[in-house]
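Hi R.,

As promised on Friday, here is the backbone we talked about, encoded as structure tokens. Could you run it through your design pipeline when you get a chance and send me back a sequence?
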């Protein structure tokens, strides 16, 4: 690839990875670090990665680093400054409380699902990836992937309703 093409690709892939990691609950700095490291590893190993597997490989590297960081955080828990919300004069406290409760309910419900189902739901419904993009990421048939997403969605709905 030409230098500009690689730069453009890494910007797009990095943005997508960053959004994915933030939706998984990572702090801004941690997500940026993982994206930077993933892009660096891609530049080192790009010759050994097939063109159709690039995004899947990058997501797998970023996801593995996410899991490593989460394991480390369990041993040394911290509070993310981004999680502390300042009161805004334009929003009523009741609305902010409801939003926080809803977001927490969604996070709690997601945590009840398998890691693969969490990933699928975030990639499909938060990052708005198409089934075609997801199938290339996971190396699965599109119809098989649709089945997995439907199962994940149904499990999420079931757990969410039970928690209400």
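Update: got your reply. Pasting your designed sequence below so it's all in one thread:
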């Amino acid at each position: 690839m030409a230098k500009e093409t690689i730069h453009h690709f890494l910007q797009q892939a990095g943005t997508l990875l960053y959004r994915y990691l933030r939706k998984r609950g990572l702090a801004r700095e941690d997500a940026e670090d993982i994206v930077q490291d993933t892009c660096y590893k891609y530049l080192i190993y790009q010759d050994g990665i097939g063109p159709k597997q690039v995004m899947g490989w990058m997501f797998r590297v970023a996801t593995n680093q996410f899991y490593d960081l989460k394991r480390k955080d369990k041993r040394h828990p911290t509070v993310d400054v981004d999680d502390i919300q300042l009161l805004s004069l334009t929003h009523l406290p009741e609305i902010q409380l409801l939003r926080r409760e809803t977001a927490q309910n969604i996070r709690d419900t997601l945590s009840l699902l398998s890691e693969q189902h969490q990933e699928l739901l975030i990639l499909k419904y938060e990052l708005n990836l198409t089934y075609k993009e997801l199938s290339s990421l996971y190396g699965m048939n599109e119809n098989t992937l649709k089945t997995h997403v439907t199962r994940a969605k149904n499990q999420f709905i079931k757990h969410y309703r039970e928690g209400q």
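One thing I noticed while checking it: The helical segments are 3-23, 28-45, 54-75, 93-111, 115-126, 131-138, 142-163.

Thanks again,
M.
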